[in-house]
Here is the input.
Amino acid sequence: MSGLWDRLTGQAERSSARTAKERLIVVLSHDRSDIEPGILEKIKNDIVRVISEHIDVDPSTVQIHIFSEGREQHLKADIPLPGPARRKRNL
Amino acid sequence: MTAKVMTVTSGKGGVGKTTATANIGVALALIGQKVVCIDSDIGLRNLDVVMGLENRIVYDLVDVVEGRARLRQAMIKDKRLPELYLIPAAQTRDKTAISPSDMVRICDELRPEVDWILIDSPAGIERGFRNAIAASDTAIIVTNPEVSAVRDADRIIGLLEAEEKGPGKLVINRIKPELVERGDMLATADILEILAVDLLGLIPEDESVLISTNRGNPAALDPKSKAGQAFRDIAGRLMGEPVPFPSLDGTDSLRKRLARLMRRGGES
Here is the structure.
């Protein structure tokens, strides 16, 4: 029965068209911005370094990526802040 | 008259630029528009054979640029339609034989004479592409529902924006509804979402295109051809008519979808 439900909702299996779309979105975000994936990694490391001077962040949780809104490209950094216990006390 | 100059381009080769140019030209001429198609693919000319005018070439685009012929002499008149003309590319030269300013000059000379100038662009993003877009007011971007063609279309759209030629309008060619339906071909909505560009036409995969090209009679002349109808729809939209887009996703109605799913459900 779940097979029928999956077919009804169009989620029977991961279709190749869906994979194509997702791959295109990633590759075009780099094509459009002319930023190689390696550069993003460098930017991420620099951001982590600067922020770490003030706040204790976990580098492994920091994410930086390019996303599109229409044909406009945005660089988005997501930096989860630590809980109060892990904050540096500068006062 | 003041012609609208449209460049048909794609980035990637083999997606149907020349077929689209010939058929949109024919479709516009069928509704009484005066149309000149220019093949700007110097050295790899093909618009002549697709339009079925290859035996009538005396002068070409490079002859005009280099002063051996007047523009009028290089315009081949289509015998099937009273107001359709072709200016063929030179076959024995290369892209450097003409410059962007030559294209601007030629189109400026033609503009007062006709309603539409359609420029068939070569593949690629180099000199030939620059020549093809130099004079254009707007572009028609042709793509297929394939990752490589969509990626190259995106690059072209970016280059057109950088040249301030507008984002252009998209024609998706060679759509196979049955593949879209089973999830193995990018759907129209996916491509439009990715490219974020206006849609001009949806052309189904249709063997009548191959057959009509074999004969040198563009499919738009064939009232029974589905692809031909899609090209005639494009001409209508270019004239400002609100021609609806048929769904080529194979999912027109929920009832049809349900019926199909129940059928498949029964098999498994």
